[in-house]
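User: Predict the structure for this protein chain, please.
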Amino acid sequence: MDVTNNEITLKNSLVGGTAKTAIKKPAKSYSDFINSHYVTKDDGKPITNTRMPNDQNKGGSYHIDENEYPDFLKLYAKEILVKNIHEHLTELQLESNGPILVDIDFHYDYSVTQKQYELCHKEEIIEHYLEVLKSMYQFDETTKFRIYVQEKDAVNRVEKKNITKDGIHIVIGISADKQTQSDLRRRIIELASESCSELPIINTWDDVFDNSITSRSTGWQLYGSRKPHHDVYKLTHIYEVTYDEEEDELKKTSIPVNNFDIINNLYELSARCITHPQFLFKSSYLNSRPPPPLATPQSARRSQSRRTHNGDSTLNAYILGITNQEELDNAHAEFIDTLLPQEYDIREANDYTMILPETYYGVGSFAKWIRVGWALRNISDKLLIVWIKFSAQAATWSFATDIQDLYARWQDFDLKNPNGLTKHSIMHWAKQDAADLYKKVRANSIDYYIDQTVKAITVDNISNDKSSRGCTDADIANVLYQMYKSDFVCVSIKNNIWYSLKNHLWIENDSGTTLRKAISTQLRDLYWSRAQAFMEQAANLNPPDEERSKRLQDVADKILKICERLGRANEKKNIMTESKDLFYDSNFMEKLDTNPYLLSFKNGVVDFKQKCFRKGYPEDYLSKCTNIDYIPIDEERDAETIAEIQDFMRKLFPIKEIHDYMWDHLASVLIGTSSVNQTFNMYIGEGKNGKSVLMELMTLCLGEYKGDVPLTLVTKDRAKVGGLAPELLALKGVRLAVMNEPSKNDQLNEGVMKQLTSGLDPIQARSPYMLQSVTFIPQFKLVVCSNEFMVIKSQDHGTWRRIRVVDFMSYFTENPVQNDPERPYQFVADPFLKEKFDRWKFVFNAMLVDIAFKTNGVVNDCARVMSSSNSYKNSFDYIGDFIRDKLVVDTTNGKVLKSEITTEFTLWYEETYGRDTRGRPSAKEVHAYMDKRFGKYEKKKAWLGIRINYDKFSVENSDADADENDDISTNDL
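Assistant: Here is the predicted structure, written as structure tokens:
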């Protein structure tokens, strides 16, 4: 951070000569060049750069052709960077390509005076980017690109806003489109919010990674330029990235900044650089990549907005010019009045927003207030005026500064994000926290849709046809949808599968029965009330008007006919048929139970990312539940239960390091990030050791988050994964998956086990009613409780790095024996232990939650568990045993052929393990093992430096070569 731009340039003489000769003499000076490219809107040329106004100039816009841009940057570097002149240029980003740009904005409390992030945080973020990029792109040995990191020397303390700001600019030299950058940003936010959670930021991680840069709606500060009265960003790190095919990893190498020729290579740091490499996407990423939004509807919306509001820019300029409450009220009223009939959803969003109580906009409401803004922006870009109107209710509101602040935030919020907050979110908040006002707004909004169903029989154009039905089944279905769109979803039209929202959980509702019942109750009551209103109006006309009274009564009669329809079984069936299309959400099952950081309890949700317990929301998309309440620990109230649980765990795991490991392991189960550890835990021990008792307690704590895995899932081949597998689909969202007791010779399918424990590889499965498979990432920790070990034929690292053997060494009996060498850990069995579990489950769960908050689900390995795991591995290392038994070191004449190894291994295996060949490694596997240990066979057509000791298992030659070389040892290998 202490290297200036001048120093970078001057030290470039080591590479490109002196600063004077680094650039060829241009035809124009920088000043002449930039001034000659000044443009106005009337010129009709696309703007490539802007200059921010300062005390000396008014700013401006510029157009620089693509073929001129490298030369322009050289002129700029020579004038601005070498001479350290203050300049304020930005670059408009390219629409379809250009580098990946990252703008990281940290906001701290104003009391912060120094940088809070360290080198490790920067390295962590860079590693996150490499990890995600590897999952998106196809890389090979020719891959090479650079990453440039820029920082300021000091933090920026903003007294006016009472905050301290700091930031990092990153340029990743890969040409990428907007959608790719958006996907990348979304995944990075998830990773960085965990790895850098200790940073004392006061803004959200969504705000930290500036979306306006990712979406390319905001210009990028040209390197060496700065905002007026601000420090400049300096190049502090350069990494060259290559791909290691053998390790399947992107490797970064640091390049000294002082050796970088900034003058001749400034183009690489430019937002408008088009020479960065492009890479093909992986099919796995393409399959998960959402389709881009259609251009035509967006254009139509923009066009409609211009017709309605005389241009978005005009509207925004008008909003930014508001200086008092009266002007704001007038602007808001005009906005509502000019909404078109088909924009009724926007009108409803306004109505529900404006009834939210002070807890959503007053002091201390930031978390709720910002979510309101996110939801409004995601509904429609037009709703900025509503957010301002809503926010202006705060006692601390200032027209002088706050409108500008809200506008800047608004530009960074997501627009039309299918996974973001919606109008349903606002409705839910209003329903929860302003129930009476919510009912009034809902009644008014539903009135609108009821009016649409009777529009053909209004007083002015009522038909004389008394048999007219008045409206169609589809019209009534639309009213039903407006009433219950937040509470019901149809997930299969063909099979009539419905879900309904109960509290904060989405529960399967048999054929939508509850909704069907509402047609003849709540919906019919609404129409009855409307009919009564028309009848009362007809009876109370003043002055009396017989003709108008008759029309009003006729309308009431038509509505009453609709009421009759709503009570008939066939009519309700038809309305439900039409409703399926309206309530249908093809992606609902994909969304359900996918957030690994949420754990649902009966009374709310534990959010492990935010480390809090909160209310559940419909957009959490939760269907599973622990089926118990979450009750935080009270050390005094729960002291006795805590002591009992701790005693239980100490007896269950008398070895301290295993005891500590299991607490962390069981706590990690609550968080669905199985990719953090990627382990397959085997609980091994003979009877009466507590395995089943522990699983019973975990079942009570986890409820629906605990699942049973059929053993065949991991012992058979992979064909079932991705096919018709309802038992696999049932594991979606499960946090603890327990396998049945395996038999002695059950063999593990290592490939399936890796997929189930990776936490990264998606799984496809479907139930019989589904036309398409559901794709999901497993969240569960895979566990097997067994007296016997499963057979694992593979010896590859990918398999055994996942295996964790947890020995259950205790023995619970009525008559424990002290100092028993066979069973050293014996304890008195408690016959009433399980009766305590109903009391324990609340406290045990809360204890696990507290641990998970601290560990974030990370489980550190311990020596005892790893030792047992390695012993397990070695028990199946037949080839290793063969090498130790039959091969000796002979560096002088040692030479072994494939045919010799194959023959001798077969004989040795039969003599050692018998003639059952089911677990015997193949000749190909033996040869591959030998290649790893003694070098490639093909190079010398033999393995050199070793020979077979034929004396072993040979009666005839038992006394030969007695004094020859010793058998091969582990060290020799």
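The radius of gyration is 35 Å.
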